[in-house]
Amino acid sequence: MKTHEFLNMFRERKLLVITDDNAITDLFRKHGFTDFADFADFDFAANTDPVFVLLSTYPSQYRMNKELWDNCGGIFVHLAAAKFDGSLQAVDYSIQKILDIPDYAATLAHRDVLYEKALSAKLINIHSGENSVLTGVLAEEVEVANYDAELEEGWLYSIAEFFETSIVNLADNKSSFCVDGKLVFNGLSYLENSPELKTEFAPLLTEMVNLSVKGDNWLECQDNSITKMVLGGQDFTAKMNEAFADSIRGLSLTEFAFGVVNHPKMPDWRINSIMNEGIVGMHVGIGIAVDTSHVDFISAGARLEFVH
Q1: N or C: which end of the chain has fewer CB within 10 A?
Q2: What's the gap between Cα 67 and its chain centre?
Q3: What is the mean pLDDT of each run of 10 residues along the chain (308 residues)?
Q4: Single pTM value for the model
Q5: Closest by CA position to 187, among listed 161, 169, 214
Q6: What distance in Å separates the CA atoms of residue 45 and residue 120, rounded to the nearest whole number?
Q7: Is-contact 124 257, C-beta < 8 A?
Q8: What CATH number labels 3-100?
Q9: Is 262 exposed, middle or buried (0-12, 13-18, 19+ CB in 10 A)?
Q10: Which residues, at least 6 apart from 177, have a Cβ–Cβ distance to it below 8 Å?
Q11: How far apart are CA 107 and CA 109, in angstroms?
Q12: Which residues contact 120 (CB under 8 A, 6 or more apart)?
């Protein structure tokens, strides 16, 4: 199945939706979906239909990661709400954001073009404001998210992969890219791989969101590490250094990504939704969500300059 075909089935409400919470099932019903199953009881191995899975709790997320890779039939696409925000408000917002995307085929084509340009470039300049340029120098070999046009059975596809061109430093710091310069950004999103980590970082991230929605947000990087962070016009560098001091990667950048969705209106930056990352522009991320949060700083409308 082609990715755009799956997304068209989502828009037409023809997919089987699998959730781990009856209240979330009711949200999908409100949006016009009619075919549902419960995550705990569903036989994924025997399934042959394309499914959209939205999980709002960590136990469900852990089971998916442990049991379902290469062990599920049909096409499997999921939204990991538990890692971001599993609240009904955030889930409702994310569903609507997917439905609001004007043209799935054009969006995917834009993603593929950006991958082609990025993978053939020596460096990429990001223009996000007056005298604000962030430059990413790419390694000869880079790690990227999955962007296959043909979806395969047995794979667990994150819906976020469809709406961004993502280059990551997974193997090591600077394994794929090294960034220097300044980025002006609108808002942020964040995720954690455990409830303990989510609880630990909640006060910091709540403060960051509350400041960032005021505007005047920017960061500076040197040798792929954030050296200055301003949120809502306030210098937040010291707090970031303290919060990430003992982490594996510190404030080094782990993601360098470009959104490809022409959303009809600006995201609500108060809501921690993975769908906000897809807006046309770019985002950089820190952390690997194991010992700290993974935080993305999203610059909507940033202009990309590919240098070959």
Answers
A1: C
A2: 23
A3: 97 98 98 98 97 97 94 96 97 98 96 96 96 96 92 95 96 97 98 96 98 98 98 98 94 98 94 97 94 97 97
A4: 0.97
A5: 214
A6: 39
A7: no
A8: 3.40.50
A9: middle
A10: 136, 137, 138, 139, 142, 167, 169, 224, 253, 256
A11: 5
A12: 306, 308
DSSP β-bridge partners for residue 133: 127
User: Which tokens sit at 74?
Assistant: 């049909």
